[in-house]
Amino acid sequence: MSNIPTPAAHLIQDYEQQKNLFENQPTIIQHFLESQARQIADGLTSGTNQIRFTLPDRVIIPIRQIEQQATVTIPEAEREQRLGDLWASITRHEVRDAILHRLQELEQTPDQAISTSASLLRYSAAAHLVFNVLPAGRSVTYRPLEDEAIPSIPVGDDSLESAITQSSDAIAEQGSADEGRGELQSPFVPAARKFYLPQWVAFDNNNKLLVGSEKEAEAHIQSMQKYVQILHRASSLASYMVACDEYQRKRYGILGQLINQGRALANFKTNAIINKIKDRAKKGSLNRGLSISLPYFDDQSLEMAETEFEIIPAGRIMFIPAFVVRAARGKQAQVNQDTRLNSSTRKHLLAQLKTLETAFQA
Questions:
Q1: Which of 79-88, 96-105, 322-331 has the highest mean pLDDT?
Q2: Are 297 and 349 in contact (CB under 8 A)?
Q3: What is the mean pLDDT of residues 250-276?
Q4: Beta partners for 72?
Q5: Coil, strand or helix at 199
Q6: CA-CA 20 to 30 A from 265: which of 53, 165, 204, 219?
Q7: 221: nearest Cα among 191, 189, 265
Q8: Concatenated DSSP letters for 36-93?
Q9: CB 51 within 8 A of CB 98
Q10: Closest residue by Cα to residue 257 from 212, 226, 230, 221
């Protein structure tokens, strides 16, 4: 994974300081912080409109002047924190903002015990999101497509498969029909095992659908987008988390897979559009106009998108394949000038349009 970016030195220093501060707390305080961190993390990722968390009764803080540590208690009246209203209408964005604002307020208080507790909760919640909420994946290596910034093509190991299925190579299901049978291993196909999280791979390297339906493939994309969103929540909560090796490992693994599978889904949808146009053309049902929404994957927003354009204006015009070719070429010229797209997304969209054009060339 040599393409993983190296965090700035100050982020590494901040991360190590917070990690050491947490590890220097007594075990009972660490466990308490972790329990409160789960509530904060849930507020950052779920739709709840009320968040409660509590500061610990004491923390160990560093005394820089004499290079020692001291245990400082926090008055009970200062510990309870409550955000939101159970009966009020409040959006997820407002809840997240309220959490971040309250932690910042607590960290800026002159009371060092409260300030330290808030910093510890911030670290604990961010670490919980990265280490506990997100599943770990396989050890993978991706290569970039030509000169792209984000590697997304898996470099797989084509050696012979082991006779023993590893847990990372399969979905483990507990057997229920026979008592004591244990876990059943449902191996992933080789194409899926080249990716970080094989359970969310819907297409092989030839854009062949590996799951039961297009809707299931879309659900896999949404799962990966949620994974990335949680990583972003962790780094927005504590920017220094990008210096964590586990954060970088998970970000590298999921980004490459999401972009790869997102483009494959776009290709699959484009081929379905082509087949539908050809089928309707055979039935003579395209003589009253034709407009299409061509799908593509935007690797800046990490979302599926569409570009709309007209092939035949509304009216009684007989469909001929050359109309599609002309419209696709015209749209390619527009996309080449579209500054809203980054270079890799533009290249991908142009390839989609080229596929459409080629399909209807004589």
A1: 322-331
A2: no
A3: 97
A4: 59
A5: helix
A6: 165
A7: 265
A8: HHHHHHHHHHS--SEEEEE--SEEEEEETTTTEEEEEE--GGGTEEEEE-TTS---HH
A9: yes
A10: 221
Torsion angle of the four alpha carbons 167, 171, 175, 180, in this order, in degrees rounded to the nearest 10: 0
Question: Of 139, 347, 331, whose CA–CA distance to 245 is shortest?
Answer: 139
pLDDT at 3 exceeding the cut of 70: no
- With 0-12 CB in 10 A as exposed, 13-18 as middle and 19+ as buried, what is 160? exposed
* Dihedral pair phi/psi, residue 333, rounded to 5°: -65, -40
Domain coordinates of the chain in residue numbers? Answer: 9-133, 142-258, 265-359
CB 60 within 8 A of CB 71: yes
Distant-in-sequence, close-in-space partners of 80: CB < 8 Å, separation ≥ 6: 52, 54, 55
Extract the tokens encoding 215: 């809707």
Whole-number pLDDT of residue 314:
79
pLDDT score at 43: 87
Tokens 């095992």 correspond to what residue?
193
Measured CA to CA, the distance from residue 307 to residue 330 in angstroms comes to 13
Spatial distance between the Cα atoms of 217 and 230, rounded to a whole number of angstroms: 20
Burial 273-288 (b: 16+ CB within 10 A, else e): bbeebeeebeeeebee
**Structure-block tokens of residue 120:** 């510890």
Residue at token pair 């290079």: 67
Residues 284 and 168: beta-carbon distance below 8 Å: no
- Please report the pLDDT score of residue 90 as a whole number: 55
